[in-house]
Task: structure prediction
Amino acid sequence: MKTFPIGGVHPPENKITAGSKIQKLAVSESVIIPVSQHIGAPATVSVNKGDTVKAGQIIATFKGFVSVNIHSSVSGKVNKIDTVIDSSGYKQTAVFIDVEGDEWLETIDRTDELKTEIRLSAEEIIKKCQESGIVGLGGATFPSHVKLTIPAGKKCDLLIINGVECEPYLTSDHRLMLEYGREILIGVSILMKALKVDRALIGIENNKTDAISHLNSLAGSFKGIDICPLKVKYPQGAEKQLIKALTKREVPSGRLPVDVNVVVHNIGTAFAVYEAVQKNKPLIERVVTITGKTLPAPGNYFVRIGTPVKKLIEAAGGLPENTGKIISGGPMMGKALVNADVPVVKGTSGIILFPEEESARMESQVCIRCAKCISVCPMGLEPYLLMSLSQRDLFERAEKEHITDCMECGSCSYICPAGRPLLDYIRLGKSTVLRMIRERVVK
Amino acid sequence: MSSTVLITVACLSLIAFLSAVILYFVAQKFKVFEDPRIDEVQAILPAANCGGCGFAGCRNLAEALVKAETFEGLNCPVGGAEIMDQVAKILGKEAPAVEPKVAVLRCNGTPEFRAKTSRYEGASDCRIAHSLYQGETDCSYGCFGLGDCVRACTFGAIYINTETGLPVISDEKCVSCGACVKACPRKLIELRKKAKKDRKIYVACSNCDKGGPARRACKVACIGCGRCQKVCEFDAIKIENNLAYVDAAKCTFCRKCVAECPTGSILEINFPPRKPKADIKTETVNA
Result:
């Protein structure tokens, strides 16, 4: 079975919610919608305090190419435009809406009817993605229309759909594949049309055999879509690793997948594209896994964007007493939240609650030169070296050691027997080196 | 037997002599002239190589000093006026008077004033904490207390007070090299003009939020109310981005602003205690 060749780890899977059907979370009485939920320029707020909005209505318009629209996920009145601490850990501008009823824009098709015929042209699909606020739902939230626009002089011959979900605990993509397989495959066909390619591969790790066989049984009626089971290994969901595993093509250092004629999209994104293009429904809700070993009723929910995380925790049975950390995203790459009032945003794939004893960090000790971090690094880097270079401010040297190739999967920190904060320092070094490179370009 | 020895000695001596001659001419040809005064100046400089002058090390400053026509813009903050006068004597130039400075921390968010709302467990490095989130309190401008400034200071002038969690800068040891200013990711340290008896009046806050959120995050935050600006007779206080700033060049240490500040964010340091007056709260902090 296929997998990527170097590095990788096997954290315990803990996919507690793999068998729970996706439920709809009740609309909260108020939502907080940040205007920057994607990589790129924040959207510009286009509503005022006191305005009445409907679900699906644009409340912030995109600014520039690498930016998308933000829509209201509920109907109600704009209470205020203020700042809120979001999952970035800093205050960001957000639109606060008090919910009144649940009225949607008439243009949105809310029926369950499956629409197979793709009427829009490639250009229209790309435009629709930006207008509907579609971003990469795997967690990176890179605007999808940017990835669908192939730069001049480059070509794309293959679309890869990421159904790997290699992070432990998370099951939102898994459930989506099981319950909305047809919609996803239509979404993939739409993406193929936008990219003008005739072949698509869906990579799924073989701990999700039910999803593999389900999609396999459906894929027969779709032209050019193949389902590829993959051996379980973290971080297979990383773009470069997935491409290598499925096609043996290697994305060179500092380049993008399109340089090897591939574009990668997430399963969740394919579903959102189906809803946007066929049902005219902008990205106003997403599947979120709420899980944790101590949580009474973990599950998967369709959550309106902007719903405070605490509502989700309440639905799952309330906050256990000994909770040490609330993580947004997966346990490997996710981020601890400052409080439970943080709103669910487009990039929130899961909320994981860790009890005190499991969330505590190991005390950092001296490096024992075991080189485990080197053997698990999927990018073939030397994490111990990059860490000490960053610690000593030797950023030029770190650049030569390809620190910018690090995709922050956290395998090194996970495996380190001395509990060293490898990734913390590598991230610091990487952001400093990227800033140095930008400054050089400006000069 | 003896002739072998003689021939060997003679040959080696000849090679040695020829090499010496070649080396002499090569040395003459490629001689690099270096002003001997550079060495002299370098010997006087403190040899801390702290970079406070803007050069990579003391030798680079010495070279620049010898080359320069006037001392304009060249100054060793570590050595101060004394060293610069000696350098000036060697070089036969005049050292302009540069006012000595000292570093101050523009944050007073002790746990007493600034309640903790979360707990940070990551690597003990301010830059990393700064890149991750706003910090353990609700103030996204204040000090983390993880000691990047302490590690940056080569003069041992800074330590973290374990009770307040904030760095303390020693007025005697600080040479105003500016290493801590560069190290702080939140730009909380400022080099201010040194006054007599190390007296200081400054706004110990860097929070640019509006009054309400700033005050909720920290009891001693500057809320940008502008009362200090109104009370100041010397036009020394400016308010920008909801934050007051006391201009050390204009401040006359009258202490009116300190008494006026509703949150107590303006600190007076190394002043004698005030005479007790009914409506003025005494808040003298000794560094």
